[in-house]
Amino acid sequence: MGDPKYPLLFKDGDVTIGALFPIHSIETLPSFEFKQKPQLLSCSSVNLRDFRLAQIMIFAIEEINRSESLLQNVSLGYKIYDSCSSRMSSMSATMGLMNGPEIVAGDRCNGQSPIHAIIGETESSATVILSRTTGPFKIPVISHAASCECLSNRKDYPSFFRTIASDYHQGRALAYIVKHFGWSWVGAVNSDNDYGNNGMAIFLNTAQKEGICVEYSKVVDTIKKSTAKVIVAFVSLLEMGLLIDQLSIQNITGLQIVGVEGWITSKSLITPKNICVLGGSLGIAVRKIYIEGFADYVLKEFWDTAFPCSQKEGNDSQIKLKCSRYQDLLALKSYNEDVSEHRHSSNVYKAVYAVANSLHSLLKCKEPEGCEKDLIIQPQQVVEALKKVNFTVKMGDRVWFDSTGATIAQYEVVNWQQDSGGSIQFKPVGFYDASLSPDQRFVVNTENIIWAGAKLKKPSSVCTASCPPGTRKAAQKGKPVCCYDCIPCAEGEISIETDSNKCKQCPGEYWSNAEKNKCVLKAVEFLSFTEVMVGLTVLVAILFYSKKDTPIVKANNSELSFLLLFSLTLCFLCSLTFIGQPTEWSCMLRHAAFGITFVLCISCVLGKTIVVLMAFKATVPGSNVMKLFGPSQQRLSVLAFTLIQLLICALWLTTSPPFPQKNMKYYKEKIILECSLGTSIGFWAVLGYIGLLSVLCFIIAFLARTLPDNFNEAKFITFSMLIFCAVWITFIPAYVSSPGKFTVAVEIFAILFSSVGLLFCIFAPKCYIILLKPKQNTKQHIMGKNKF
Fold it and tell me: What gap in Å lies between CA 464 and CA 503, rounded to an integer?
């Protein structure tokens, strides 16, 4: 019932293109007292950016109307409405575009749309309203700046196109920037509208995949308390201004802000108080494209030909009334310094040319005949034609629409930098081009960036510093995955990369180095000739062997004494077979030599003990005992006892002989080279036989301990056997429980200690006489009744 809403800028033509731009930013509501016909909404506060968009649209239409190759004989008209940054005004303007100002006589509309396409809106939420309203009438809407991914749904918005890329790419590009600079702990704020909510959802989803954690997605109070030093601001220009005001009031500075095309190149944000907050900002911007002739056009030709107040028809009062609506725009008549930074202008330019190329096809335009102007073009036909457009504008850019109605994503990465004169420049430092391969589409030149606070060093924004090689990440309970502790790898495990999630186990024969960042060959361990006990054993053997010819040694069964010394020498020498790296032959030799030499030794001691006992019995008158156990019998007994051990060893070595093996179970950090017993039955049979002879020898010697003084060697044999048995009884648990080379060392110790025990107990008294009492080392003394 109210007066119709008229376009702010308009021109008649054969074909009309409509447009909605928020040329003003403040809307004043009329009175709603219902006492008069509703008044039109009034708008104020010029939005320079969108006024330039209206100018570039008119510039492009005038350029097409002059063209001799595009719509040669068809004139394009336009109707540009001001939506006043208001949903109410936007809806009113949309109805004005679709209906026209005149009421058609009769009960029905004439079925003809007054416009063939609409360019706009600037904001995504307003574009959603516009597209949903015009959608049922198949009127194509081409937006230059509405980047919300929600508009890619062709089911809901079948007639929507845009000359800007979807925020699907912008959200991902923001995440790639954050990832590129190693910022794993960031804050995020977004507008609570279609643009901010959908864009932030894309960023958060990509950030999660890239291992980036968002500390918060709220505003000022949280920002002040947070530890994140980077803020991703997916907000519109208006809301970014409000956010910066609050950050300035609370003196929150030094934060690295990463922004979006909606505000990152807006000169309206450049104020002295904002520089301390926004200086050094990084962001995604629509590519800057120079449109030849436009800067001059906005200074003169536009005001002379396209501005409604420029016509001088009527008297002064009528002109003054007509121009009152445009007073605030006239203030911009001589200003064009901002033209180069209005990056969305090229998108409007492309949108106009996209419509023109569609009409050129539908009107069957040819050179030089021109177009078939009589053809009636329906908006739906324009929609289908727009899907097929593929052309290149004079700036060199190719224009075409993908399956979602959008163009290819091509952004600049810009950095707020202050030049020597103190003014802020939006310096390109990289790009994102979705038409390139994934490894080439995102490039940033870090060296050219000035960071927040005018610093040259890149800020760090992480919850936890990177874990170096040799450690792994362990998540902190109740915190995001970017907050973790660095745990050193366990023994035998390594990590060779920074921020490893887990450590890798080294292969079987390898072990981790001290830094846990490299697998090295395990140390191979076996008993070597450098062991001190071996040297001592050789020295003791040499000492006793060198005294074998003294009278005291020859006394009391000298033949058995020499054989005992020989067998003890073999016992000492057999310990050497346990030294060095085990081989197949050394493993068999060491156990066989040990068993045979010890049986030979114990057989000699047993023979000496029996001789002592027989000699005592021989002193009884009429006794014929010594004839029964003479030298031949003594040799035969030693040989018989030894042959039994030889037989046991032969059976062991032929059935299941010992063999060398690598033991990697006991020590994880080293390999133990050892001899496997083959079968434990053979080993314990050898050891058991030695034990049996030892016990027998001990019993006989114990029974002979009370012999006369001349034959008191039995006492020393008793004591030596006591030591021998004690050593080998202790050997059993020690052998079973000792690891690696210590198993061998225990066996060598038992061999040496028991051998030394025999030497010490049996021969030490004689050595005492030889070395300290040489006068007693005579045959007469030994044949007498003196004690040793």
Answer: 19
CA 510 to centroid of chain Cα atoms: 25
pLDDT value at residue 451: 95
Question: How many whole angstroms separate alpha carbon 496 and alpha carbon 462?
Answer: 21
**Residues contacting 424, CB < 8 A, separation 6+:** 267, 270, 275, 279, 416, 417, 418
Buried b (16+ CB within 10 A) or exposed e, 670-706: bbbbbbebbeeebbebbbebbbebbebbbebbbebee
CA 4 – CA 638 distance, rounded (Å) = 135
pLDDT digits (tens, 9 = 90+) for 162-171: 999 999 999 9
* Cα 272 from Cα 610, distance rounded (Å): 116
Q: Burial level of 440, CB count in 10 A (0-12/13-18/19+)?
A: exposed
Task: Give 528's strand partners.
Answer: none
DSSP 44: E
Asked if residue 677 lies in contact with residue 743, where contact means CB atoms within 8 angstroms, the answer is no
Q: How far is the C-alpha of 436 from the C-alpha of 448, rounded, in Å?
A: 23
- pLDDT for 106 equals 56
> Which regions in the chain score pLDDT beneath 50?
527-533, 535-537, 540-541, 543-544, 709-711, 785-788
CB–CB of 426/377 below 8 Å?
A: no
Task: Indicate the DSSP class of residue 27.
Answer: E
pTM value > 0.70: no
Radius of gyration of the chain, Cα coordinates, nearest whole angstrom? 52
3-state secondary structure 663-719: ECCCCCCEEEEEEECCCHHHHHHHHHHHHHHHHHHHHHHHHCCCCCHHHCHHHHHHH
Residue 37 tokens read as: 């016909």
Distance between CA atoms of residues 110 and 56, nearest Å:
32
Closest CA to 570 of 607, 603, 528: 603
Q: What is the pLDDT of residue 540?
A: 43
Amino acid identity at 744: V
pLDDT number for residue 746: 74
Pairwise CA distance, residues 207 & 176, whole Å: 8
Q: What are phi and psi of 513, to 5 degrees?
A: -80, 180
* Beta pairing partners, 505: 493
First to last CA, the chain: 145
* Contacts of 666 by beta carbon, 8 Å cutoff, 6+ apart: 672, 739, 740
- Give the pLDDT of residue 348: 96
Would you tell me how many other CB atoms lie within 10 Å of the CB of residue 718?
A: 20
Neighbours of 251 (CB within 10 A): 9
Q: Which of 201, 216, 187, 188 is nearest to 148 (CA)?
A: 201
Query: Which tokens go with 161?
Result: 């196109």
pLDDT at 521: 84
- 181 in the Ramachandran plot: left (φ > 0), alpha (ψ -120 to 50) or beta? alpha
| Beta-strand pair 670-676/160-162 | unpaired
- Which amino acid does the sequence have at 554? K
Q: Is 136 helix (H, G, I), strand (E, B) or coil?
A: helix
Q: Which residues contact 272 (CB under 8 A, 6 or more apart)?
A: none
DSSP at 771? H
Question: CB–CB of 283/427 below 8 Å?
Answer: no
Alpha-carbon distance 752 to 739, whole Å? Answer: 19
**For tokens 């921020």, what's the residue?**
499
| Owner of token pair 């809806």 | 91
- Residue 754 neighbours by CB distance under 10 Å: 25
Enter the tokens of residue 220. 């000022």
C-alpha distances in angstroms, 587 versus 276, 650, 788?
81, 14, 43
Give the residue carrying structure tokens 């058991």. Answer: 688
Residues 6 or more apart whose CB falls under 8 angstroms from that of 785 comprise: 709, 710
Rounded-to-integer distance, Cα 386 and Cα 403, Å: 11
